[in-house]
Task: structure prediction
Amino acid sequence: MSSGNNVHEPKPSSDDTPETPYEEVYAPSSGNAYEALNEGEDPRWAYGTGFADPLAGVDTRVPEGVDRTDLAAYCLMLGDDALIMSHRLQEWCTRAPELEEEVALANIALDLLGQARLLLARAGAAEGAGRDEDALAFLREAGEFRNVRLVEAENGDFGHAMARLLVFTTWRLALLDRLAGSRDPVLAAVAVKGVKEVAYHRDYAAGWVVRLGDGTPYSRERVAEGLESVWPLVAELFRPHVVELRLAEAGVGVDPAALREEFDAVLDHVLSAATLTRPGDTVTPEGGQGGRAGTHTDVMTGLLAEMQSVARAHPEATW
Amino acid sequence: MVTGRQRYGHEVGRMVSAREVAEAVADPELPMMTLDDLGILRDVEETSGGGVVVTITPTYSGCPAMAAIRADLSSALHAAGYAEVDVRTLLSPAWTTEWISEKGRRKLAEAGIAPPGTAPVRRSGPVPVALGPSRKRLRCPRCGSGDTEELSRFGATACKALWRCRTCREPFEHLKEL
Result:
Protein backbone atom coordinates (compact mmCIF):
# COMPACT_ATOMS: atom_id res chain seq x y z
CA MET A 1 0.00 0.00 0.00
CA SER A 2 1.45 3.36 -0.95
CA SER A 3 1.05 6.86 0.35
CA GLY A 4 -2.33 8.48 0.08
CA ASN A 5 -4.17 5.23 0.61
CA ASN A 6 -3.64 4.69 4.26
CA VAL A 7 -4.59 7.97 5.83
CA HIS A 8 -7.54 6.30 7.55
CA GLU A 9 -5.46 3.66 9.21
CA PRO A 10 -4.86 3.85 12.94
CA LYS A 11 -1.51 5.37 13.69
CA PRO A 12 0.86 4.23 16.38
CA SER A 13 0.29 6.20 19.53
CA SER A 14 3.67 7.89 19.26
CA ASP A 15 6.42 8.19 16.73
CA ASP A 16 9.07 6.81 19.02
CA THR A 17 7.44 3.39 19.38
CA PRO A 18 10.38 1.08 19.93
CA GLU A 19 11.03 -1.31 17.11
CA THR A 20 10.84 -5.02 17.75
CA PRO A 21 12.08 -7.93 15.65
CA TYR A 22 8.46 -8.71 14.74
CA GLU A 23 8.09 -5.43 12.92
CA GLU A 24 11.10 -6.14 10.78
CA VAL A 25 9.89 -9.59 9.92
CA TYR A 26 6.21 -8.99 9.33
CA ALA A 27 5.75 -5.31 8.72
CA PRO A 28 8.83 -3.81 7.15
CA SER A 29 6.86 -1.18 5.26
CA SER A 30 4.77 0.18 8.09
CA GLY A 31 7.12 -0.05 11.02
CA ASN A 32 4.42 -1.17 13.44
CA ALA A 33 2.87 -4.55 14.04
CA TYR A 34 -0.53 -2.99 14.69
CA GLU A 35 -0.53 -1.28 11.32
CA ALA A 36 0.62 -4.45 9.64
CA LEU A 37 -2.57 -6.14 10.81
CA ASN A 38 -4.57 -3.52 8.98
CA GLU A 39 -2.79 -4.18 5.70
CA GLY A 40 -4.12 -7.71 5.42
CA GLU A 41 -6.99 -8.67 3.18
CA ASP A 42 -9.54 -8.66 5.95
CA PRO A 43 -8.59 -6.33 8.77
CA ARG A 44 -12.00 -6.29 10.39
CA TRP A 45 -11.78 -9.13 12.82
CA ALA A 46 -8.23 -8.54 13.93
CA TYR A 47 -8.88 -5.77 16.41
CA GLY A 48 -12.06 -3.91 15.60
CA THR A 49 -12.93 -1.29 13.08
CA GLY A 50 -12.15 2.01 14.72
CA PHE A 51 -15.81 2.95 14.40
CA ALA A 52 -16.96 2.95 17.98
CA ASP A 53 -19.70 5.56 18.16
CA PRO A 54 -23.11 4.14 17.23
CA LEU A 55 -24.39 7.71 16.88
CA ALA A 56 -21.59 8.85 14.55
CA GLY A 57 -22.79 11.87 12.62
CA VAL A 58 -26.20 11.95 14.31
CA ASP A 59 -27.40 15.35 15.53
CA THR A 60 -27.44 14.91 19.30
CA ARG A 61 -28.50 18.40 20.32
CA VAL A 62 -30.99 18.49 23.17
CA PRO A 63 -34.47 19.66 22.13
CA GLU A 64 -35.68 23.08 23.20
CA GLY A 65 -36.98 23.29 26.74
CA VAL A 66 -35.60 19.91 27.84
CA ASP A 67 -33.32 19.61 30.84
CA ARG A 68 -30.20 17.81 29.66
CA THR A 69 -29.63 16.14 33.04
CA ASP A 70 -33.15 14.73 32.88
CA LEU A 71 -32.69 13.56 29.30
CA ALA A 72 -29.39 11.86 30.17
CA ALA A 73 -30.97 10.13 33.17
CA TYR A 74 -33.94 8.99 31.08
CA CYS A 75 -31.73 7.55 28.33
CA LEU A 76 -29.78 5.70 31.02
CA MET A 77 -33.01 4.20 32.37
CA LEU A 78 -34.10 2.81 29.00
CA GLY A 79 -30.53 1.94 28.01
CA ASP A 80 -29.81 0.13 31.27
CA ASP A 81 -33.04 -1.89 30.96
CA ALA A 82 -31.84 -3.12 27.57
CA LEU A 83 -28.22 -3.63 28.63
CA ILE A 84 -28.94 -5.65 31.76
CA MET A 85 -31.69 -7.72 30.11
CA SER A 86 -29.26 -8.39 27.27
CA HIS A 87 -26.63 -9.54 29.74
CA ARG A 88 -28.98 -12.02 31.41
CA LEU A 89 -29.96 -13.36 27.99
CA GLN A 90 -26.30 -13.65 26.99
CA GLU A 91 -25.77 -15.85 30.03
CA TRP A 92 -27.90 -18.45 28.23
CA CYS A 93 -25.17 -18.96 25.62
CA THR A 94 -24.09 -22.63 25.79
CA ARG A 95 -26.88 -23.29 28.32
CA ALA A 96 -30.08 -23.21 26.26
CA PRO A 97 -32.10 -26.42 25.89
CA GLU A 98 -31.72 -26.51 22.09
CA LEU A 99 -29.50 -24.85 19.54
CA GLU A 100 -32.43 -22.98 17.96
CA GLU A 101 -33.38 -21.46 21.32
CA GLU A 102 -29.80 -20.54 22.03
CA VAL A 103 -29.61 -18.72 18.70
CA ALA A 104 -32.93 -17.03 19.43
CA LEU A 105 -31.88 -15.86 22.91
CA ALA A 106 -28.54 -14.61 21.59
CA ASN A 107 -30.26 -12.75 18.74
CA ILE A 108 -32.65 -11.06 21.15
CA ALA A 109 -29.73 -10.17 23.41
CA LEU A 110 -27.92 -8.68 20.42
CA ASP A 111 -30.87 -6.49 19.40
CA LEU A 112 -31.19 -5.26 22.99
CA LEU A 113 -27.48 -4.59 23.18
CA GLY A 114 -27.80 -2.49 20.03
CA GLN A 115 -30.63 -0.50 21.61
CA ALA A 116 -28.55 -0.10 24.77
CA ARG A 117 -25.56 1.21 22.83
CA LEU A 118 -27.63 3.87 21.08
CA LEU A 119 -29.36 4.91 24.31
CA LEU A 120 -26.17 5.03 26.38
CA ALA A 121 -24.43 7.00 23.64
CA ARG A 122 -27.41 9.35 23.65
CA ALA A 123 -27.16 9.64 27.44
CA GLY A 124 -23.47 10.45 27.21
CA ALA A 125 -24.07 13.11 24.56
CA ALA A 126 -26.89 14.71 26.55
CA GLU A 127 -24.83 14.63 29.74
CA GLY A 128 -21.96 16.37 27.99
CA ALA A 129 -19.32 15.16 30.46
CA GLY A 130 -17.33 13.17 27.94
CA ARG A 131 -18.57 9.73 28.96
CA ASP A 132 -19.15 7.42 26.01
CA GLU A 133 -21.26 4.25 25.90
CA ASP A 134 -18.36 2.14 27.19
CA ALA A 135 -17.69 4.41 30.16
CA LEU A 136 -21.38 4.32 31.02
CA ALA A 137 -21.74 0.55 30.64
CA PHE A 138 -18.50 -0.52 32.24
CA LEU A 139 -17.42 2.15 34.70
CA ARG A 140 -20.53 2.82 36.75
CA GLU A 141 -21.30 1.25 40.12
CA ALA A 142 -24.55 -0.61 40.86
CA GLY A 143 -26.11 2.43 42.54
CA GLU A 144 -25.68 4.46 39.35
CA PHE A 145 -27.60 1.99 37.19
CA ARG A 146 -31.22 2.93 36.60
CA ASN A 147 -32.70 -0.27 35.19
CA VAL A 148 -35.85 -1.80 36.62
CA ARG A 149 -35.15 -4.74 38.92
CA LEU A 150 -37.04 -7.20 36.72
CA VAL A 151 -34.10 -7.39 34.31
CA GLU A 152 -31.36 -7.96 36.89
CA ALA A 153 -32.97 -10.97 38.62
CA GLU A 154 -30.85 -14.09 38.21
CA ASN A 155 -31.70 -16.56 35.49
CA GLY A 156 -33.75 -19.60 36.42
CA ASP A 157 -34.84 -22.36 34.06
CA PHE A 158 -36.19 -21.94 30.54
CA GLY A 159 -39.76 -21.50 31.84
CA HIS A 160 -38.59 -18.60 33.98
CA ALA A 161 -36.67 -17.13 31.03
CA MET A 162 -39.76 -17.17 28.80
CA ALA A 163 -42.02 -15.78 31.55
CA ARG A 164 -39.64 -12.89 32.22
CA LEU A 165 -39.07 -12.25 28.51
CA LEU A 166 -42.82 -12.08 27.89
CA VAL A 167 -43.27 -9.60 30.75
CA PHE A 168 -40.27 -7.53 29.72
CA THR A 169 -41.03 -7.40 25.99
CA THR A 170 -44.73 -6.66 26.52
CA TRP A 171 -43.85 -3.75 28.77
CA ARG A 172 -40.99 -2.44 26.63
CA LEU A 173 -42.94 -2.70 23.39
CA ALA A 174 -45.78 -0.64 24.88
CA LEU A 175 -43.20 1.90 26.06
CA LEU A 176 -41.22 2.14 22.80
CA ASP A 177 -44.43 2.39 20.79
CA ARG A 178 -45.33 5.57 22.66
CA LEU A 179 -41.75 6.82 22.65
CA ALA A 180 -41.81 6.75 18.84
CA GLY A 181 -43.64 10.08 19.07
CA SER A 182 -40.96 11.65 21.28
CA ARG A 183 -39.90 15.24 20.66
CA ASP A 184 -36.31 14.04 20.89
CA PRO A 185 -35.49 12.83 17.37
CA VAL A 186 -32.85 10.36 18.58
CA LEU A 187 -35.16 8.72 21.12
CA ALA A 188 -37.95 8.64 18.54
CA ALA A 189 -35.72 6.94 15.96
CA VAL A 190 -34.39 4.38 18.46
CA ALA A 191 -37.97 3.64 19.46
CA VAL A 192 -39.30 3.23 15.90
CA LYS A 193 -36.62 0.63 15.17
CA GLY A 194 -36.98 -0.94 18.61
CA VAL A 195 -40.73 -1.46 18.21
CA LYS A 196 -40.17 -3.80 15.26
CA GLU A 197 -37.41 -5.70 17.04
CA VAL A 198 -39.17 -6.07 20.37
CA ALA A 199 -42.46 -7.07 18.70
CA TYR A 200 -40.54 -9.99 17.18
CA HIS A 201 -39.04 -10.85 20.59
CA ARG A 202 -42.45 -10.73 22.21
CA ASP A 203 -43.94 -13.09 19.61
CA TYR A 204 -41.14 -15.53 20.40
CA ALA A 205 -41.66 -15.36 24.18
CA ALA A 206 -45.46 -15.50 23.84
CA GLY A 207 -45.19 -18.55 21.58
CA TRP A 208 -43.09 -20.38 24.16
CA VAL A 209 -45.30 -19.38 27.09
CA VAL A 210 -48.27 -20.86 25.22
CA ARG A 211 -46.37 -24.04 24.31
CA LEU A 212 -45.13 -24.55 27.84
CA GLY A 213 -48.34 -23.52 29.59
CA ASP A 214 -50.55 -25.61 27.34
CA GLY A 215 -47.98 -28.43 27.16
CA THR A 216 -47.20 -31.19 29.62
CA PRO A 217 -48.01 -30.92 33.33
CA TYR A 218 -44.29 -30.44 33.95
CA SER A 219 -43.73 -27.70 31.35
CA ARG A 220 -46.84 -25.98 32.67
CA GLU A 221 -45.51 -26.13 36.21
CA ARG A 222 -42.17 -24.66 35.13
CA VAL A 223 -43.60 -21.65 33.28
CA ALA A 224 -46.26 -21.03 35.94
CA GLU A 225 -43.54 -21.01 38.58
CA GLY A 226 -41.46 -18.67 36.42
CA LEU A 227 -44.37 -16.28 36.16
CA GLU A 228 -44.96 -16.38 39.92
CA SER A 229 -41.30 -15.65 40.54
CA VAL A 230 -41.09 -12.58 38.27
CA TRP A 231 -44.46 -11.15 39.26
CA PRO A 232 -43.37 -9.34 42.43
CA LEU A 233 -41.12 -7.24 40.13
CA VAL A 234 -43.97 -6.22 37.81
CA ALA A 235 -45.53 -3.37 39.83
CA GLU A 236 -42.26 -1.43 39.67
CA LEU A 237 -42.47 -1.32 35.85
CA PHE A 238 -45.42 1.03 36.03
CA ARG A 239 -44.33 3.25 38.91
CA PRO A 240 -43.06 6.50 37.43
CA HIS A 241 -39.85 8.12 38.54
CA VAL A 242 -39.92 11.91 38.77
CA VAL A 243 -37.62 12.18 35.74
CA GLU A 244 -40.03 10.07 33.68
CA LEU A 245 -42.91 12.30 34.72
CA ARG A 246 -41.05 15.50 33.87
CA LEU A 247 -40.01 14.17 30.45
CA ALA A 248 -43.49 12.83 29.73
CA GLU A 249 -44.77 16.31 30.50
CA ALA A 250 -42.18 17.76 28.08
CA GLY A 251 -43.28 15.43 25.29
CA VAL A 252 -39.97 13.57 25.30
CA GLY A 253 -40.57 10.56 27.56
CA VAL A 254 -43.38 8.20 28.52
CA ASP A 255 -45.20 7.92 31.84
CA PRO A 256 -44.97 4.17 32.54
CA ALA A 257 -48.26 4.22 34.47
CA ALA A 258 -49.98 4.72 31.10
CA LEU A 259 -48.67 1.34 29.88
CA ARG A 260 -50.48 -0.85 32.37
CA GLU A 261 -53.71 -1.27 30.45
CA GLU A 262 -52.03 -2.47 27.26
CA PHE A 263 -49.69 -4.68 29.27
CA ASP A 264 -52.56 -6.39 31.09
CA ALA A 265 -54.53 -6.89 27.88
CA VAL A 266 -51.61 -8.53 26.08
CA LEU A 267 -50.68 -10.69 29.07
CA ASP A 268 -54.27 -11.84 29.50
CA HIS A 269 -54.51 -12.72 25.80
CA VAL A 270 -51.30 -14.78 25.85
CA LEU A 271 -51.93 -16.37 29.24
CA SER A 272 -55.43 -17.43 28.32
CA ALA A 273 -54.06 -19.17 25.20
CA ALA A 274 -51.51 -20.78 27.53
CA THR A 275 -54.30 -21.81 29.95
CA LEU A 276 -52.47 -19.87 32.66
CA THR A 277 -53.72 -17.08 34.88
CA ARG A 278 -52.11 -13.76 35.67
CA PRO A 279 -50.75 -13.80 39.22
CA GLY A 280 -52.14 -11.18 41.57
CA ASP A 281 -50.00 -8.11 42.14
CA THR A 282 -47.92 -8.28 45.25
CA VAL A 283 -46.26 -5.44 47.02
CA THR A 284 -42.63 -5.17 45.92
CA PRO A 285 -40.27 -4.98 48.85
CA GLU A 286 -39.44 -1.31 48.69
CA GLY A 287 -36.12 0.38 48.96
CA GLY A 288 -36.22 3.97 47.84
CA GLN A 289 -37.87 4.14 44.43
CA GLY A 290 -36.51 0.88 43.10
CA GLY A 291 -34.18 0.41 40.17
CA ARG A 292 -35.01 3.72 38.52
CA ALA A 293 -33.53 5.52 41.54
CA GLY A 294 -30.50 3.22 41.69
CA THR A 295 -31.76 0.88 44.41
CA HIS A 296 -31.05 -2.64 43.25
CA THR A 297 -31.20 -6.16 44.56
CA ASP A 298 -28.02 -7.85 45.79
CA VAL A 299 -27.51 -9.79 42.56
CA MET A 300 -26.75 -6.58 40.64
CA THR A 301 -23.26 -6.37 42.13
CA GLY A 302 -22.32 -9.85 40.92
CA LEU A 303 -23.81 -9.20 37.50
CA LEU A 304 -21.77 -6.03 37.08
CA ALA A 305 -18.61 -7.64 38.40
CA GLU A 306 -18.77 -10.11 35.53
CA MET A 307 -20.04 -7.72 32.86
CA GLN A 308 -17.43 -5.08 33.67
CA SER A 309 -14.47 -7.31 34.49
CA VAL A 310 -12.61 -7.05 31.18
CA ALA A 311 -13.14 -3.31 30.77
CA ARG A 312 -12.02 -2.65 34.35
CA ALA A 313 -8.98 -4.88 34.02
CA HIS A 314 -7.89 -2.99 30.87
CA PRO A 315 -9.17 0.54 31.39
CA GLU A 316 -7.27 2.04 28.45
CA ALA A 317 -8.08 -0.67 25.93
CA THR A 318 -9.80 0.18 22.67
CA TRP A 319 -12.03 -2.32 20.91
CA MET B 1 2.17 13.74 -5.75
CA VAL B 2 0.01 11.30 -7.62
CA THR B 3 -3.10 10.71 -5.58
CA GLY B 4 -4.84 7.40 -5.33
CA ARG B 5 -7.85 8.86 -7.02
CA GLN B 6 -5.93 9.69 -10.16
CA ARG B 7 -4.30 6.28 -10.14
CA TYR B 8 -7.66 4.59 -9.83
CA GLY B 9 -8.94 6.71 -12.69
CA HIS B 10 -6.03 5.70 -14.92
CA GLU B 11 -6.45 2.05 -14.14
CA VAL B 12 -10.08 1.91 -15.18
CA GLY B 13 -9.74 4.54 -17.87
CA ARG B 14 -12.15 7.02 -16.28
CA MET B 15 -12.85 8.80 -13.06
CA VAL B 16 -15.00 6.81 -10.70
CA SER B 17 -17.45 8.78 -8.61
CA ALA B 18 -17.58 8.39 -4.86
CA ARG B 19 -21.15 7.17 -5.18
CA GLU B 20 -20.13 4.36 -7.51
CA VAL B 21 -17.37 3.31 -5.14
CA ALA B 22 -19.69 3.39 -2.11
CA GLU B 23 -22.50 1.58 -3.90
CA ALA B 24 -20.19 -1.27 -4.87
CA VAL B 25 -19.03 -2.01 -1.29
CA ALA B 26 -20.20 -5.49 -0.26
CA ASP B 27 -22.12 -6.33 2.89
CA PRO B 28 -19.79 -8.35 5.14
CA GLU B 29 -22.51 -10.81 6.19
CA LEU B 30 -24.15 -11.10 2.78
CA PRO B 31 -21.15 -10.67 0.46
CA MET B 32 -23.23 -11.18 -2.69
CA MET B 33 -25.09 -7.96 -1.81
CA THR B 34 -23.70 -4.48 -2.38
CA LEU B 35 -24.73 -1.60 -0.15
CA ASP B 36 -26.75 -0.35 -3.11
CA ASP B 37 -28.62 -3.69 -3.35
CA LEU B 38 -29.27 -3.54 0.38
CA GLY B 39 -30.58 0.01 0.25
CA ILE B 40 -28.72 1.31 3.30
CA LEU B 41 -26.80 4.01 1.45
CA ARG B 42 -28.73 7.24 1.97
CA ASP B 43 -26.35 9.84 0.59
CA VAL B 44 -22.86 10.22 -0.88
CA GLU B 45 -21.60 13.76 -1.11
CA GLU B 46 -18.23 14.83 -2.44
CA THR B 47 -16.83 17.86 -0.66
CA SER B 48 -14.85 20.62 -2.31
CA GLY B 49 -11.70 19.58 -0.46
CA GLY B 50 -11.53 16.15 -2.11
CA GLY B 51 -13.37 14.38 0.69
CA VAL B 52 -16.60 12.43 0.89
CA VAL B 53 -19.46 12.38 3.37
CA VAL B 54 -21.34 9.08 3.23
CA THR B 55 -24.62 8.64 5.08
CA ILE B 56 -25.91 5.17 5.90
CA THR B 57 -28.94 3.85 7.78
CA PRO B 58 -28.52 0.89 10.15
CA THR B 59 -30.48 -2.30 9.48
CA TYR B 60 -30.94 -3.72 12.99
CA SER B 61 -30.01 -1.77 16.17
CA GLY B 62 -27.41 -4.35 17.16
CA CYS B 63 -26.19 -5.49 13.76
CA PRO B 64 -22.43 -5.96 14.17
CA ALA B 65 -21.97 -5.59 10.42
CA MET B 66 -22.61 -1.86 10.66
CA ALA B 67 -19.18 -1.11 12.09
CA ALA B 68 -17.56 -3.31 9.44
CA ILE B 69 -19.58 -1.57 6.72
CA ARG B 70 -18.38 1.83 7.95
CA ALA B 71 -14.79 0.59 7.92
CA ASP B 72 -15.18 -0.94 4.45
CA LEU B 73 -16.72 2.25 3.05
CA SER B 74 -13.92 4.29 4.51
CA SER B 75 -11.29 1.92 3.20
CA ALA B 76 -12.78 1.69 -0.34
CA LEU B 77 -13.13 5.45 -0.67
CA HIS B 78 -9.61 6.05 0.59
CA ALA B 79 -8.33 3.53 -1.91
CA ALA B 80 -10.19 5.44 -4.63
CA GLY B 81 -8.28 8.56 -3.63
CA TYR B 82 -10.64 10.44 -1.35
CA ALA B 83 -8.51 11.87 1.42
CA GLU B 84 -11.21 12.59 3.98
CA VAL B 85 -14.02 10.10 4.44
CA ASP B 86 -16.76 10.81 6.95
CA VAL B 87 -19.32 8.02 7.42
CA ARG B 88 -22.44 9.31 9.13
CA THR B 89 -25.43 7.52 10.56
CA LEU B 90 -28.99 8.47 9.73
CA LEU B 91 -31.47 6.80 12.09
CA SER B 92 -34.67 8.14 10.59
CA PRO B 93 -36.46 7.04 8.51
CA ALA B 94 -35.64 3.51 9.70
CA TRP B 95 -34.36 1.00 7.17
CA THR B 96 -36.89 -1.48 5.87
CA THR B 97 -36.46 -4.54 3.68
CA GLU B 98 -38.63 -2.67 1.16
CA TRP B 99 -35.45 -0.77 0.29
CA ILE B 100 -33.71 -3.92 -0.98
CA SER B 101 -33.54 -3.61 -4.76
CA GLU B 102 -35.02 -6.10 -7.25
CA LYS B 103 -31.48 -6.99 -8.25
CA GLY B 104 -30.65 -7.56 -4.57
CA ARG B 105 -33.63 -9.87 -4.16
CA ARG B 106 -32.52 -11.87 -7.19
CA LYS B 107 -29.00 -12.17 -5.82
CA LEU B 108 -30.33 -13.39 -2.46
CA ALA B 109 -32.44 -16.08 -4.12
CA GLU B 110 -29.51 -17.14 -6.29
CA ALA B 111 -27.41 -17.51 -3.13
CA GLY B 112 -30.07 -19.79 -1.61
CA ILE B 113 -31.58 -17.16 0.69
CA ALA B 114 -35.32 -16.62 0.37
CA PRO B 115 -35.79 -12.86 -0.10
CA PRO B 116 -38.14 -10.90 2.17
CA GLY B 117 -41.80 -10.57 1.27
CA THR B 118 -43.74 -7.36 1.74
CA ALA B 119 -42.93 -5.69 5.04
CA PRO B 120 -45.89 -5.71 7.42
CA VAL B 121 -47.88 -2.49 7.49
CA ARG B 122 -48.41 -1.07 10.95
CA ARG B 123 -52.07 -0.53 11.80
CA SER B 124 -53.23 1.89 14.46
CA GLY B 125 -53.56 0.67 18.03
CA PRO B 126 -51.29 -1.65 20.00
CA VAL B 127 -49.02 -4.02 18.07
CA PRO B 128 -50.92 -7.34 17.93
CA VAL B 129 -49.32 -10.52 19.31
CA ALA B 130 -48.79 -13.23 16.70
CA LEU B 131 -49.44 -16.58 18.37
CA GLY B 132 -49.06 -19.92 16.65
CA PRO B 133 -46.94 -20.95 13.67
CA SER B 134 -46.01 -18.48 10.95
CA ARG B 135 -48.66 -18.20 8.29
CA LYS B 136 -46.06 -17.02 5.84
CA ARG B 137 -45.47 -19.22 2.78
CA LEU B 138 -42.08 -19.06 1.15
CA ARG B 139 -40.86 -20.56 -2.07
CA CYS B 140 -37.79 -22.77 -1.68
CA PRO B 141 -34.88 -20.88 -3.28
CA ARG B 142 -33.32 -24.21 -4.35
CA CYS B 143 -36.15 -26.21 -5.95
CA GLY B 144 -38.92 -23.63 -6.16
CA SER B 145 -41.41 -25.70 -4.16
CA GLY B 146 -43.99 -23.80 -2.13
CA ASP B 147 -44.17 -26.57 0.46
CA THR B 148 -41.88 -25.05 3.06
CA GLU B 149 -41.90 -24.52 6.83
CA GLU B 150 -40.24 -22.27 9.37
CA LEU B 151 -37.69 -24.08 11.54
CA SER B 152 -36.59 -21.19 13.70
CA ARG B 153 -37.65 -17.57 13.88
CA PHE B 154 -34.03 -16.60 14.46
CA GLY B 155 -30.97 -17.48 12.39
CA ALA B 156 -27.25 -17.00 12.03
CA THR B 157 -27.58 -13.21 11.74
CA ALA B 158 -30.06 -10.70 13.13
CA CYS B 159 -31.75 -10.35 9.75
CA LYS B 160 -32.42 -14.01 8.97
CA ALA B 161 -34.71 -16.88 9.96
CA LEU B 162 -34.21 -20.59 9.27
CA TRP B 163 -36.61 -22.50 7.02
CA ARG B 164 -36.85 -25.95 5.43
CA CYS B 165 -38.25 -27.21 2.17
CA ARG B 166 -40.48 -30.27 2.54
CA THR B 167 -40.03 -31.19 -1.11
CA CYS B 168 -36.24 -31.16 -1.58
CA ARG B 169 -35.64 -31.52 2.17
CA GLU B 170 -33.02 -28.78 2.18
CA PRO B 171 -32.91 -26.15 4.88
CA PHE B 172 -32.59 -22.56 3.71
CA GLU B 173 -32.27 -19.10 5.16
CA HIS B 174 -34.82 -16.34 4.81
CA LEU B 175 -34.20 -12.63 5.10
CA LYS B 176 -36.98 -11.48 7.43
CA GLU B 177 -39.36 -8.73 6.43
CA LEU B 178 -38.71 -5.61 8.47
User: Anything to note?
Assistant: The two ends of chain B are 47 Å apart (CA to CA).
